[in-house]
Amino acid sequence: MKRRDLLKSGLALGSGLAMAGHSGIVQAAVGTAPVTFPKGFLWGVATAAYQVEGGARDGGRGPSIWDTFSHTPGKTKNGDTGDVADDSFHRWREDIALMTQLGVDSYRFSIAWSRIQPTGRGPANVQGLDYYKRLVDGLLEAGIRPFPTLYHWDLPQALEDAGGWPNRDTADRMTDYALIMAEALADRVTAWSVLNEVKTFTQAGYWDGGMAPGRKEPLAFLKATHVANIANANAFHALKAVNSKVQVGSAYDCANCFPATDSEADKAAAVRWDKLINLWYLQATLTGTYPELLPADRQAELLGWRAGDEARLKVPLDFVGINYYSGWRVWDEPKGNGIPNLNTRAEWAWSPRSIGKSDFGWDIDPPGIHQILKRMQQLTGSIPIEITENGIADNTPPGPDGRIHDVRRIAYLRAHLKELRRAIDDGVPVRAYHLWSLLDNFEWAAGYSQRFGIVHVDFEHGQKRSPRDSAYWYANVIKQNAVA
Ligand code: FCB
């Protein structure tokens, strides 16, 4: 479909929406005034390698922890794996064509480390490099900014076998990998993100075990946080060493932390949880120090801290990426939770302001994006911010006309974008928004059960892509640089 046609359908959509009356989220977003975004604001879409590429055994790719985890019975919904996913490894040209139709300015994708270094160390696999070079060149030809993330959760399995993120050596392996990628692409890629959601992959991977590699070792988790923070800085230096002009940041999942009750104990617990969720990583990167949380006399031992680490952690990020979805509900837990001093119990995807839930069960809280941006700005100050992810699982099936009228997604996006604009008005220097996601994809432990795409993917019939109503709507937002 031509871009013009997309826009036409997008415009037609607006009128239908007001009548949808689907839920609180739809009503909340209807009837408010249009807002225009600053000139030059970047509109983007996001994906990640293991979630979309497939081609798991193609092009010399080595196994990652997500191959192992998803192939372990009982770890993912329906035993789903990323073996084929959206097959973007073969269909990337089609994906670029879709983005061209949408008119996006920026594509946030990730590089699969084990395509580049199949065992996480040693020389680059030329076929892996060629894939990303072609993708980057294709994006540049289409006038879209290539915005790669070096690490979106798919550690080469061989590095996990050697101890994984709690093993200090992994931070040095990241240096080598970043250097390889910089040498391959730093003449063409101007903006890089190093880690995606360091909090989630360390916590879910090593503490609660719900994601790869599925370990439930709170103390290993603490070590992993420190090693990953050092890896983040190592990659920053490596990318800059090859081209000092590139912009380097990282994508942090930030979320408001709400006390479960009005009790002083729960309020204090929410403050502690905020330190871990929102500060532990970004503060370490920007200042070289951790928030006061662990027992002071044990912190060095618990983190595996070495002399000089303050300088190793600290880098002047060129921008900060923020992923926003929902909030945390936090209780005091005097019995403890495996992390010395933390004493919390926390439930993901909750907000006292919820106006409905996504199909994933996540509370929808549009003002939360404004709140979290203001909160994080206390730390980031004038550093530019890019929204690196925001979006909703809306599994609405095709209607009788064969189209997918995902009114809830449109309402969600509209409400969040308006709150984002309000944050910009209030002085938060946000320069970009990346919608999660361009395509339905492998949603980690939830497999293919949750659909985040503005483009529907038919996993049963050759990964056929069909834009949903939200795709037409988003194309119109981009064209107008405004949200009606
Ligand atoms: C984020 C992840 C992304 C996707 C969305 C829904 O936490 O970074 O890969 O799974 O959630």
Q: How would you describe the overall organization of this protein?
A:
- With 484 residues, the protein is of the alpha/beta class.
- It has a single domain, classed as Glycosidases (TIM Barrel), CATH 3.20.20.
- It contains 18 helices and 15 strands.
- The strands form four sheets. It has an eight-stranded parallel β-barrel with strand order 2-3-4-5-6-8-11-12, surrounded by four helices.
- A hairpin with a 5-residue loop joins strand 13 and strand 14.
- The radius of gyration is 21 Å and the shape is globular.
- The N terminus is likely disordered.
- The structure holds beta-D-fucopyranose.
- The site of beta-D-fucopyranose (FCB) has 12 residues, from loops.
Main β sheet profile: 8 strands, parallel, barrel
Going by CATH, the architecture would be: Alpha-Beta Barrel
Radius of gyration: 21 Å
Sum up the overall morphology in one term: globular
- Compute the separation of the termini in Å: 24 Å
Report strand %.
Answer: 5-15%
Based on helices, strands and strand pairing, what is the structural class? alpha/beta
